[in-house]
Design goal:
This protein has two domains: 1-95, Carboxypeptidase-like, regulatory domain (Immunoglobulin-like); 225-799, Maltoporin, Chain A, CATH 2.40.170. With 800 residues, the protein is mainly beta. The chain contains seven helices and 56 strands. Pfam families: Plug (PF07715), TonB_dep_Rec_b-barrel (PF00593).
C-alpha cells in the first residue's frame, strides 16, 4: 500500500496532461468544487458538473462563448481559449451568502435545504480540512450545534436537542447504522466511521421518523462517503490523496491513502486509514478533581497501585484504529447505475477510562476495565433507475448487511477472575425509495423498509492466573428484532412564496428474546412484543422577500424498545445494577418548531430555531424490584435494583441561533449558540433534569479565507451545570465530576481559545493549529475523560 511522493507526483502530471477537455469548476474563495453548474453554448444546452465539479466540454470546443450558471454565483462567459489559459480550472464568485444548499438527508433525495421545514446543518469539506477532526465524533462537533460527550478517548456520543444515544439515528450512505443494542447510556459507534473517507455530513434537527423510522427522535446524522468517479470522456480519470497528521496531546499518528479510478461506465474507489493514539494529556489549568493520582499495574500476578508521576496524563486511554473502504460504481447507461460499497473498521483494545477512576474502600475499584476491539463491517448495494413512469421518475433500492462486534472486560482490584462479555449483531436491511413529480406543484416521495437484527451475547469468567475460562452471565439475551415500514411524503407548492410538506409512516416492529436464568433468578425465560407505530409530519416554508424564509414544523416520532432496553444487565453507577424488564412499550415524541433564516444585504446571514418536544412513555432508568427484593448481590456488592421503565413523560425545549458576517470577500465573523432544557416527570409527578440535555454551549469564530489560505481563530464555550440541576443518575458519579463548596457533584463552565490555519497550492495542502491555547483543564458535561490540553496539530495532504 506504499506510494512514493515522487511516484504520486508523476501520476499527477500524467493525469493533468491526459484530460485536456475535462474542466473543474470551483469556488474562487474556498477552492471547493461546485456541483450542478449549468454550462451551455449558443447552440447546445446544457452540460452540468458532477459532484466533484467536473465536466467534459469537448462538445463545446467550437463555441465562441461558453456560459457558466449556478444559483448564488455570478454568471460567467468564457471562450475555449480563455478556459485553456486557466488550465481548465474555472473559478466562480458568489453573489451573496447562500440561504440554503443541496441536501439529501431530509427525504433521501437531493433537495434545496431552504425548501425544507426542518432545520439542516451541513458540515462543509473546506471546514473539515481546516479543523482536521481526529474522529467522526469530533467532525460532528464542527457544526457548532452538536454536543459531544466522551467516556474514554475511544469514544464520542452526540447530544442533539436534549436527546442522545438510541434517540438519535446514524445513516451512512443511506443505510441505518442503529442496531438493537444501541443503549440509553453513552455510545461510541460513530468512531467506526473514518473522517478521511467522509465526503459530506448533514445533521437534521428534530424528529425524522417519517423517513428513518425508530430512534430518529432528536435528530438524524447523515454521512456520505467518498464515491468512485466516472470519466466524462473515453480517458481514464484518476483522483486520490495521501495524508498524514500528528498531534501532541496524545502523540497521534494518522496515515491515510485514497484513490479513485474511473472510466466512462465503471469506477473504483479505495480508502485506507490507520491511526495510533497514545494516552491523552489533559490541561493544566482547572479543577484538581479531574486528576487521577494513581495507576494500577499488574506485577508478578498482583495488582500494584502506584503514583501517577504525570498528573495530567490520563492512562489508560490510548488505542489504534484501522479503516478500509472499497467502492465500485457501474453505470451501463444514463438511466441505470449500480453502486457497491464495502466498509470495515476495527480498533485495538481500549480502556474505559472513567471506570478506572472509581474507588472502593480507599483503593481503585478495578484492576482492569477495557473494551475489546470494536468492529464494524458493512456490505452495501444501491441500484438507481431514472426512467419516468406513471409511478415514479426515479427509484433506488438499497440492500445492506452489517456486522457489529464489541466486548467488555472488567476485573476488580486484586481479583483473579476477569468478566468477559461479548456481543455480536448481524443487521440486514432493505430500502426501496421512489420519487415522482406531479406537474409543478407536487413532488411525492414514498418507500418501503425492512430491518432485521440478530443479537448474540456471550458471557465468560476468565481466571488470569490459571488461564481458564468458564461460563458467565451474558449482558443481553439472544434475540431477534425486526421492523417493517411504509411511508409517503408530499411537497406541495401552494404559491411562489409558500411550500407545504406533509408525510406519514406506518412502522411495525417485533422482538423475541430468550433469557438465561442460570446466573440471575429472573421470573421469566422469554420476552416478546409485536406492535406498530403511526407517525406523521407537516411543515410550511414561507419565503419573505428574496432572501428570507420562515419555517414551521410539527411532527411525531417513536422509538421501539430494543434488546438493550428490555434485556440488559449491567452496573449503571456505584451501588446500582440494571436488570431486564420485559414489560416495555414504545415511546412517542411530539415535536413543534419554528425556524427562520435571512441574508441581509450580501454579507450578513442569521438563522435560528425554537423547538419543543414532548416524550410520552419515556424509557428511563428507575428503581425496580426483582422477586420482591429492591437490592441484589452483584459483583460482590449489594446493589440497588433498577430497570428501564416507561416513565410518565419527558419534555425538552430550546433555542438554536447562528450568524455569519463577511467583511468584504475574505474576512468573516460567525458563531453559534445552543440552549436546551429537559425534564423527566415520573408517574407520581416528581421532576428531574433529563440526563442528555446538554448545558448551553456555543462558539465564536473569526477568519480569513482566500485562494490558498484559510485561517481561523475561534473560541468554544460551555455553561456550568449546577449541583441542583444535575440528573439523579449523574449525582453519584463523583469520579467524573468536580465537587462544589458543599461537596456535591457539578459540571463547571469552561471556554477555550483555538487557532487553525491551512495553505493549499496545487496538489499540496498543509494544515496546522493550536487547540486549547490557554491549556484549560475541562470536561464536557457527562464526560468521563478530560479534554486535551494545549494541543499542536499539523497535517499534510497530497492530492490529485
Amino acid at each position: 500500500m506504499k506510494l512514493s511522493i515522487s511516484g504520486f507526483a508523476l501520476l499527477l502530471l500524467f493525469c493533468s496532461a491526459s484530460f485536456a477537455q475535462q474542466i473543474t469548476v470551483v469556488d474562487m474563495i474556498t477552492e471547493e468544487p461546485i456541483s450542478d453548474v449549468h454550462i451551455s453554448g449558443s447552440t447546445q444546452h446544457y452540460l452540468k458538473t458532477n459532484e466533484d465539479g467536473i465536466v467534459d466540454i469537448s462538445s463545446l470546443s467550437k463555441e465562441d462563448s461558453i456560459s457558466f450558471r449556478h444559483v448564488g454565483y455570478h454568471t460567467m462567459s468564457l471562450t475555449p481559449k480563455m478556459i485553456k489559459k486557466m488550465n481548465y480550472r474555472v473559478e466562480m464568485t458568489i453573489t451573496s451568502l447562500p440561504l440554503g444548499e443541496l441536501v439529501v438527508a431530509t427525504n433521501r433525495w437531493k433537495v434545496q435545504s431552504e425548501t425544507s421545514p426542518q432545520k439542516v446543518s451541513t458540515i462543509k469539506p473546506a471546514e473539515v480540512k481546516l479543523q482536521n477532526p481526529q474522529t467522526a465524533a469530533d467532525l460532528l462537533a464542527i457544526s457548532g450545534k452538536v454536543y459531544i460527550q466522551k467516556s474514554q478517548q475511544g469514544g464520542g456520543s452526540p447530544m442533539i436537542r436534549g436527546f442522545a444515544t438510541n434517540r438519535l439515528l446514524y445513516s451512512i450512505d443511506g443505510v441505518r447504522m442503529n442496531t438493537a443494542i444501541f443503549r440509553g447510556g453513552n455510545i461510541q459507534n460513530v468512531i467506526s466511521l473514518d473522517p478521511y473517507s467522509i465526503k459530506n455530513t448533514e445533521v437534521i434537527f428534530g424528529p425524522g421518523s417519517v423517513i428513518y423510522g425508530s430512534d430518529a427522535i432528536g435528530g438524524v446524522m447523515s454521512f456520505t462517503t467518498l464515491e468512485p468517479l466516472l470519466s466524462t470522456n473515453d480517458s481514464l480519470l484518476v483522483k486520490g490523496s495521501l495524508a498524514g497528521r500528528y498531534s501532541t496531546a496524545n502523540q497521534e499518528q494518522s496515515k491515510h491513502i485514497d484513490i479513485s479510478l474511473g472510466w466512462k461506465k465503471i469506477g473504483f474507489a479505495t480508502s485506507i486509514s490507520h491511526v495510533n493514539y497514545g494516552d491523552l494529556v489533559m490541561g493544566s489549568n482547572g479543577p484538581d478533581d479531574y486528576i487521577k493520582p494513581f495507576n494500577v499495574e499488574r506485577i508478578n500476578d498482583s495488582d500494584v497501585v502506584s503514583i501517577n508521576e504525570n498528573e495530567n496524563l490520563q492512562t489508560p486511554s490510548g488505542y489504534d484504529q484501522l479503516n478500509i473502504m472499497q467502492k465500485i460504481k457501474f453505470r451501463p447507461s444514463d438511466k441505470l447505475e449500480f453502486d457497491y460499497g464495502f466498509h470495515y473498521s476495527t480498533t485495538s483494545d481500549y480502556g474505559r477510562y472513567d471506570r478506572h477512576l472509581r474507588m472502593r474502600n480507599g483503593l481503585p475499584r478495578y484492576g482492569d476495565w477495557y473494551y475489546g476491539p470494536q468492529k464494524w463491517m458493512m456490505n452495501h448495494l444501491e441500484v438507481k433507475l431514472s426512467t419516468p413512469t406513471k409511478l415514479f421518475d426515479d427509484v433506488k433500492l438499497n440492500l445492506a448487511y452489517q456486522n457489529f462486534e464489541e466486548s467488555r472486560h472488567s476485573r476488580s482490584l486484586n481479583k483473579d477472575t476477569r468478566e468477559d462479555r461479548y456481543e455480536k449483531v448481524d443487521a440486514a436491511s432493505a430500502n426501496l425509495d421512489f420519487i415522482k413529480s406531479i406537474d409543478s406543484t407536487h413532488t411525492i416521495t414514498y418507500g418501503l423498509e425492512y430491518v432485521n437484527n440478530n443479537v448474540n451475547s456471550i458471557g465468560e469468567d476468565y481466571n488470569i492466573i490459571e488461564e481458564i475460562a468458564s461460563p458467565g452471565p451474558a449482558r443481553y439475551p439472544n434475540a431477534v428484532w425486526q421492523s417493517y415500514a411504509a411511508f409517503i411524503t408530499d411537497k406541495i407548492t401552494l404559491s411562489k412564496k409558500l411550500d407545504l410538506s406533509i408525510g406519514v409512516r406506518y412502522n411495525h416492529f417485533s422482538m423475541d428474546a430468550d433469557f438465561d436464568t442460570t446466573f440471575y433468578p429472573f421470573p421469566f425465560t422469554k420476552a416478546s412484543f409485536n406492535n406498530g407505530a403511526l407517525t406523521g409530519s407537516a411543515g410550511v416554508v414561507l419565503k419573505v422577500g428574496k432572501n428570507s424564509i420562515l419555517t414551521s414544523n410539527v411532527s411525531t416520532a417513536f422509538r421501539s424498545p430494543n434488546v438493550d432496553d428490555m434485556g440488559k444487565v449491567f452496573d449503571s453507577e456505584p451501588g446500582a445494577v440494571v436488570i431486564p424488564n420485559p414489560n416495555l412499550e414504545a415511546e412517542y415524541a411530539y415535536n413543534g418548531d419554528l425556524g427562520f433564516a435571512s441574508v441581509l444585504g450580501r454579507r450578513f446571514k442569521i438563522d435560528g430555531a425554537f423547538y419543543y418536544t414532548y416524550l410520552q412513555n419515556a424509557l428511563v432508568r428507575r428503581d425496580y424490584t426483582l422477586n420482591g427484593e429492591d437490592s441484589i448481590l452483584y459483583d460482590g456488592v449489594m446493589s440497588k435494583v433498577q430497570a428501564i421503565q416507561n416513565a410518565a413523560y419527558a419534555h425538552v425545549f430550546g433555542v438554536q441561533f447562528g450568524f455569519t458576517y463577511h467583511f468584504g470577500e475574505s474576512f468573516y465573523l460567525g458563531g453559534d449558540l445552543n440552549y436546551q432544557r429537559g425534564v423527566d416527570v415520573t408517574e407520581d409527578g416528581q421532576e428531574s433534569p433529563s440526563r442528555h440535555a446538554a448545558p448551553m454551549f456555543g462558539n465564536l469564530k473569526a477568519g480569513y479565507r482566500y485562494k490558498h489560505w484559510n485561517v481561523q481563530v475561534y473560541g468554544l464555550y460551555n455553561a456550568a451545570v449546577r449541583s441542583e440541576d444535575m440528573p439523579p443518575s449523574e449525582q453519584g458519579k463523583t469520579e467524573i465530576y468536580a465537587l462544589d463548596e458543599n461537596g456535591n457533584t457539578y459540571s463547571p463552565e469552561w471556554y477555550t481559545l483555538n487557532l487553525k490555519a491551512s495553505y493549499q497550492y496545487r496538489f499540496i495542502h498543509v494544515s496546522a493549529g493550536v487547540e486549547n491555547i490557554l491549556d484549560k483543564r475541562y470536561k464536557p458535561y457527562s464526560s468521563g475523560i478530560a479534554a486535551p490540553g494545549r494541543n499542536f496539530v499539523i497535517s499534510l495532504r497530497l492530492s490529485l
